[in-house]
Amino acid sequence: MSFNSIKGFKDILPEEVGYWQRLESAARRIYTAYGFQEIKTPVLEWTELFSRGIGEETDIVSKEMYTLTDSKGRGMTMRPEATASVVRAYIQHRLYGKNPIRKLFSIGPMFRHEQPQLGRFRQFHQINAEIFGDPGPRSDAEIIAMAMQLFETIGLGDLCLNINALGCPECRPRFRDELRAFLQDKADGLCADCLRRRQTNPLRVFDCKVDGCKGVIADAPSIPDYLCGDCDGHFGEVQALLNHLNISYMINHKLVRGLDYYNRTTFEIRTERLGAQNAVAGGGRYDGLVKLLGGPDHPAIGFAVGMERLVALLQESGGPGAERSGLYIAALGEDAEKAAFQWAFQLRKSGLGVDMSYQSKSLKAQMKQADRLQAAHVLIVGDNEMASGVGLLRDMDTKEQSELSLKDCVARLTELLG
Ligand code: HAM
Q1: What is the pTM of this model?
Q2: Does pLDDT of 320 surpass 70?
Q3: The CATH number of the domain where 396 resides is what?
């Protein structure tokens, strides 16, 4: 009997890992520069955290959660997203205690029982960033700027930023009523889910992927027409700040996002190159969530990057997964192999990445292996080099070769490449 991975759960193979590392290290560097600290939360949480936080009527909670039951009959769910978990940790550990403004990021797997397709998996990975404690538009613009900086840094400067304003508990009820009234006589065009949603949570009709529902919603009332003065002012400020930072965007009044906790600014970063799964990142303000989950009335805003989708774009754009690094020692003949084995041991101790062949092989075979391993340099040593005490050091990018004294080669290589 043999096993394959479960549908929608995929292996990330060593050949691909370079892209993941590039993305992760760029995010760590950039987010740290913006004052974010890393937090790691468990994969398993009480189910109520998500059903309350994300909303019972969302696709995520109503259809997509991986839920199991503990011995006392209490539901536990594999996190479908990270925001509710980070908010739980923020409340549980009073992370607001010392510092009213708290910026947190987290990286890890999420689980949603969706139909797998290009860019959509059942286990996928996100990089999340959340700012707690600031209600103003500057944190909205800052977090969007940070997202755009990440994409530009990894070489994806051609993505499209969509923004929208969803209003607040003051103004959204009026919009919801208007939307419900609009949907009232559209029963023929709506799917069974949306017929229910138009009563329970009409905004969720905007998320529906069924063509008929998309057609109905095309003529629906538009949220910005219902914003209160404060929300309108906030959205105007966000746009002014983005203009000030020279960040291009598109206002998309249909962007409601698939989670109930959002208010005011929402945004999504999209690509034309991934078919239907076109969002590589999404987020927004969620000022009511900390209170809803039992914490103080602290505002917040955040977003998540979908790592699989970004890696697919990086692979498609043909950039290198990982840069060449380290040294390969191509040794020919017994004496050279013996010396190389010891040099490799010493060089690794001093922190340099070094590899060599376990078996005696031709120079051609060893150079091929060095290339496959993405070595930046190769030290070539055969009987002649051992006799003359001078080896050849080859730069694998430029193909240039220079002579290197073998007597003090460990110190010299550490100095040159370390
Ligand atoms: P979301 O839009 O559900 O938001 O997910 C964010 C990103 O995760 C998406 O734009 C997409 O790139 C990726 N993603 C989502 N589902 C899948 C999937 N099945 N397969 C592959 N990639 C996927 C959230 O999760 C919010 N918690 C974001 C947030 C953080 N809002 C505030 N803070």
Answers
A1: 0.88
A2: no
A3: 3.40.50.800
